Amino acid sequence: MRPERLNLLFAEADTLEGVGPKLRKPLDKLGLTRIRDLAYHLPDRFVTRRAIENLDEGSEGEQIVVALTPIEHRAPRNNRGPYRVLAQDAPGNVCALTYFGRASYTAKKLLPVGEKRWVAGRLDRYGDMLQIVHPDHVEQEGGAALGTLVEPVYPLAEGLTQPKVTGLARQALERVPDLPEWIEPGVMAKHGWPAWRDALVLAHRAPHAEARDRLAYDELFANSLALMLVKAANRRKRGQPLRGDGSLRDRLRLPFPLTGAQSRSISEIEGDLAQGAPMLRLLQGDVGAGKTIVALEAMLVAVEAGAQAALLAPTEILARQHYETLRELAAATGVQIALLTGRDKGKARESILMGLVDGSIDLVVGTHAIFQESVAYRNLGLVVIDEQHRFGVSQRLMLTRKGKLTPHTLAMTATPIPRTLTLAQYGEMEVSRLDEMPPGRKPIVTRVVALDRIEDVVSGIARHLETGQQAFWVCPMVHENEREDLAAAEARFAALKARFGDAVVLVHGQQKPEVKDAAMERFVSGEAKLMVATTVIEVGVDVPNATLVIVEQAEHFGLAQLHQLRGRVGRGSQQAVCLLLRSPAISETARRRLALMRETQDGFRIAEEDLELRGAGEILGTRQSGDSPFRIAQPEQIKHLLPIAHDDARLLVDRDGGLSGERGEAARLLLYLFERDWGVQLLRGG
Ligand code: ADP
Ligand code: MG
Predict the structure, then answer these.
(1) Could you read off the pLDDT of 573-619 as tens digits, one per residue?
(2) CA 296, CA 273: separation in Å to the nearest integer?
(3) Which ligand 1 atom sits closest to the C-alpha of 257?
(4) Ligand 1, pocket-test mutation among 252, 254, 256, 326, most atoms within 8 A of CB
């Protein structure tokens, strides 16, 4: 239960004055649903404006305030063009006030011809004409005062204006209560940080590095603290030491020697399994790095020690594929392996459940069905979670609550995460890294192609499919309205189907599971040759014959995600190709990001640079795996404040593990504030 003193902060945003159904949509889009969110919706930057009397006094790129009189409205010739209002200053210099999209309605109302208005915005040049694009303010009176203010510039969504957000933020701040301090006084003093409430107020008012850092630190500290509590709770749990005698592993006949990184990871895992406290370890490695073998070896250790092991996959298809791979690899060992998914019903399911209870099944592979209430194990010693990032920390916690003794956990992920963020996302775990690829992999050829060459690309696909190989076509999810995206993916599907007929399948997140699985299976089995998918295409599923991946509007994807999509091909012996189709006009940063994809295939490097290169708001759509879990803390702040926050959190947990002292109590509030309250719940569980 959230402490009462936070209730005001968690009240809905529409309890604020002036928030009706119309504002709800843009606010939701920005994630601003509660007072707390608005209080934390910090300005991107601030502008200082200069009031000028004559347009000649302003320089290009300068923020100005000037009195202008509209002389003519120019509607666009087609519906893509901007709406322009020509306006002149006192001496008669003309400037265009330019509006795109729906903003033109506002222009019509705000700028009647012949009536003087104070206009504030950035003075630019368009051809040989001066212009202000989307003025920040258009006022009838008192405009000169605008020239003396430092104004916040907030991230916006369509349907919101700067003054509107400024007003809402101000109202929200008025409701923010004082809270007891959770930061160590020494740390506060050393950095010169203001108290929490003051920091919020200051951060909205003007550029204020200390206030910003303090708020970022809070977020980082909350995260570290929650993970630390998980780690501490785990250490208090009783697990069973598992020591294998090697008898099963000796019988494994692998068709290749292990890489150094694989051997190292396996010994790290063996070391953990032998301990009394349950293992919590993350195995990180690019797609194709060979995580499955490592998982198998770990599971065999458990079986050798007389326990059972479970492998959890995020999807049915992936579970099935793992099951088949493991059966083949482990055939010579004689271990009993079963597959259990939500699809199994009746007798077949009963017999698997029996086998798990009586211990005749050593190793079970499945979806979350393997952790349902009704599934009991004789002695579950190890849980392996594949594609870990699909599961949040709170889910991770649930999964390991089977059995009297807590099973050891090995989590695996192919999502490259920058080093700085590993601590933040998996701080409660030890990490093993497969930073070495099995030998003999051919690099994937990566090309960036402009979307207007789509005809060539389609002809290329035709040639590709003729050789008997398969391909993925990935469409982005970029609109605020998911339907538009589906419409786009469906249109693409229809177009490709017109060309390639039944060889094309469509897979997206809104399909019924049966429909989606059926389409996936047609592709995995090789019956279908081309899969059109939104970004949801299954992680980790092996289609050795798929050697071409095309990503449409690649500039909308995060690098980590592009890297994963690319990893979908290039698993067989054939040369694999990745085509990044970009829109005709993309930003400088977007261009650099795509260029980086061409330059390297090192997932860890890509993850590092992604964090740096990602302009706020540049990448649309929902949060992506591998993203920063932070909303307040920026990359720079994460880099220098996260290690400090992490140490401070450890100190607090060491001193007051129950968070019952004065600072501990305050820190509990912080955990709720940043919705890391699963940390608090662990405390209660003991
Ligand atoms: P991922 O890390 O993506 O789960 P997999 O475990 O599926 O990777 O391995 C990818 C491919 O590489 C598989 O075909 C596997 O048999 C092969 N492989 C794994 N380890 C080695 C190795 N040491 N040498 C050669 N091939 C390997
Ligand atoms: Mg895998």
Answers:
(1) 789 999 999 988 887 878 888 999 999 988 888 887 877 766 443 44
(2) 14
(3) 23
(4) 256
